[in-house]
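Reading a protein record of the kind used here takes little practice once its layout is understood. The fold follows as a row of integers, each naming the local backbone shape at the matching residue. With these conventions in mind, the following record can be read line by line:

_____
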Amino acid sequence: MSMLVITGTGTGVGKTITTAAIAALAAGQGQRVAVLKPAQTGVGPDEPGDLADVLRLAGPVTTRELRRYPDPLSPEAASRLSGLPTLPPSEIAAVASDLNGEHDLTLIEGAGGLLVRFDADGASLADVAWSLGALVIVVAEAGLGTLNATALTAEVATKRGLTVAGVIIGSWPEDPDLASVSNLQDLPVAAGAPLLGVLPAGLGDAEPEEFAAKARAGLSPWFGGEFDPECFVGRASAQK
């Protein structure tokens, strides 16, 4: 049994697609997989959230959502605006531990970045990861500006006693620019951890079979995939 915390360098970097890709590969290997989304923001009560995308792409894995806030803000700000209860890290950790006891792999997908606040005391996903002793996967953007955001995320994680297992590019452009190609070599340095995958842009629109195949091609053998960072860097560099 193992737990992974999936965080990002910001919002919209591909955390949900990355989470679904890791879940799809594990489920395809016969593992019992659970995906926990502690706080979903910017989605109404009857609207599909991130976990609906995970189920659509990864298949019948166990999913849990603990809080839902209608406004597209941080969980703490959305809670304050809506008057709905905040989400203490202790509750997240307790649910994650229960899921982990019944599954081979439990994935915990954050909202935004590592230090986005869950409550007025400043509790964040970093506190959850620390209390669980879970490895952290950082999902980063491909292009200009990603190195600083990745380095900041990794530095904070390390100072808080967390282990960053690797970095994954959540949306690789079809026609990458010079910065994106260069970042393939620099992102592992910024993260202090290996490049564990590169997922193509638009992957969330794929049908489940195609999604699984591209997830396998885009994720490291560490997840059960076939991604080879040296080969990928070589191919990308040759195109420039």
